[in-house]
């Protein structure tokens, strides 16, 4: 597969989706591919993914607005390391392994907060938020230590396009711009995501492999079957106009409100953007949805040991109250309402299906299974992941 239409105008891409509805077609990957259950259950496959994917390439850990001020931090479990992500005094963000260099106690237990230093609960060693070892308690008896060698272990971190990206390996380098490539880097650049804020964010630990989770949020084929009374009423099933950037993908899924243009073609300059959702698959583990007035970010992180578990995080990323021109009350009400709808669909419709997929794949004699030509973005996801782990 090669790049189809690099940075085609949005209107052209929407018109291509409209053609697909007329023809009962969708973008075609060109071939059906078989896959095996062990890709979702084998501990050795999971280990390779942790090391060769998350240990090598940048993935998003949060939006910058979640650590707005110096000394603001969040903690999370990456596939290889438990980490603390903390805003520095100079405005940059650093990520540290969440572990005390004395005898390995977990250093910070809170999910998020603001602190002047990280202080270990075991023997009270303390570290500056820049990671340096500040104090060894009772150091007259502890003995001579070169403190510069026992600061917190730092992971490669970069803030770009409003998001904080981390490579989960202390010995790796990070270059988010190079990883995104010129097309996706310029697409994200155009959105001004750094001016928005994550108004809601929540994580869900599910007994499901991370790839099954990620696949479900690139899938336009399941909509009317899995979501007949919610998304299925609003969004076309099995219609997608995608651009394969060779690693990341941008794709348009038309809403049913576009159907009025089936009879009568839209004028050449008609803005059709409110009739579609534009989605971005950011390899390895994020789906960024662009809605008319906000963004949603979905990330899927493997469990550090069990191939059958993962954590999904969902974020609603929106204009600030000031930029929205709304009253604070109306702004809060709007996003709370949006959030509740999203959460209900996840819990009531997607998660039960995905848990049952994982349960099904646990059978020893599962046999080969298939990804169709119509499952374009899932095919790219699998193709790129195989490149990384082979
Ligand atoms: S383990 Fe942290 S101070 Fe001893
Ligand atoms: Fe779904």
From TrEMBL:
It comes from the Bacteria. Coiled coil: none annotated. The keyword Oxidoreductase applies. Gene3D superfamilies: Naphthalene 1,2-dioxygenase Alpha Subunit, Chain A, domain 1 (3.90.380.10), Rieske [2Fe-2S] iron-sulphur domain (2.102.10.10). SUPFAM superfamilies: Bet v1-like, ISP domain. GO terms for molecular function: 2 iron, 2 sulfur cluster binding; dioxygenase activity; iron ion binding; monooxygenase activity; oxidoreductase activity, acting on paired donors, with incorporation or reduction of molecular oxygen. Its cofactor is Fe cation. Keywords: 2Fe-2S, Dioxygenase, Iron, Iron-sulfur, Metal-binding, NAD, Oxidoreductase. Residues 59-166 form the Rieske domain. The keyword Acetylation does not apply. Pfam families: Rieske, Ring_hydroxyl_A. This is Aromatic ring-hydroxylating dioxygenase subunit alpha. It comes from Kineosporia babensis.
């Amino acid at each position: 597969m090669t790049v189809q239409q690099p940075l085609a105008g949005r209107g052209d891409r929407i018109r291509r989706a409209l053609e697909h509805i007329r023809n009962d077609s969708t973008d075609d990957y060109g071939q059906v591919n078989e896959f095996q259950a062990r890709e979702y259950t084998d501990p050795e496959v999971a280990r390779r993914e942790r090391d060769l994917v998350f240990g090598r390439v940048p993935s998003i850990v949060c939006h910058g607005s979640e650590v707005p001020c110096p000394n603001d931090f969040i903690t999370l479990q990456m596939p290889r390391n438990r980490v603390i992500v903390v805003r520095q005094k100079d405005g940059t963000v650093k990520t540290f392994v969440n572990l005390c260099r004395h005898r390995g106690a977990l250093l910070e237990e809170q999910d998020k907060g603001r602190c002047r230093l990280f202080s270990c609960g075991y023997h009270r060693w303390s570290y500056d938020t820049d990671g340096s070892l500040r104090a060894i308690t009772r150091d007259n008896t502890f003995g001579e230590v070169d403190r510069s060698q026992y600061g917190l272990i730092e992971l490669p971190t970069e803030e770009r396009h409003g998001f904080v990206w981390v490579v989960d390996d202390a010995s790796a380098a990070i270059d988010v711009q190079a990883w995104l490539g010129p097309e996706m880097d310029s697409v994200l650049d155009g959105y001004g995501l750094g001016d928005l804020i994550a108004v809601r964010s929540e994580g869900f630990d599910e007994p499901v492999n991370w790839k099954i989770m990620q696949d479900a949020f690139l899938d336009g084929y399941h909509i009317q079957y899995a979501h007949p009374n919610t998304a299925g009423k609003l969004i076309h099933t099995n219609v997608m106009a995608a651009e394969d950037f060779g690693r990341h993908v941008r794709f348009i899924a038309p809403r049913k409100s576009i159907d009025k243009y089936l009879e009568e073609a839209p004028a050449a300059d008609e803005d059709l953007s409110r009739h579609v959702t534009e989605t971005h698959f950011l390899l390895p583990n994020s789906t960024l949805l662009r809605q008319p007035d906000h963004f949603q970010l979905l990330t899927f992180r493997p469990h550090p040991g069990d191939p059958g578990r993962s954590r999904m995080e969902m974020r609603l990323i929106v204009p600030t109250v000031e930029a929205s021109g709304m009253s604070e009350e109306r702004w809060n009400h709007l996003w709370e309402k949006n959030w509740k709808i999203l959460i209900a669909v996840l819990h009531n419709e997607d998660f039960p299906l995905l848990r049952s997929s994982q349960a099904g794949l646990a059978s020893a004699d599962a046999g080969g299974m298939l990804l169709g030509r119509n499952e374009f973005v899932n095919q790219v996801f699998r193709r790129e992941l195989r490149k990384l782990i082979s």
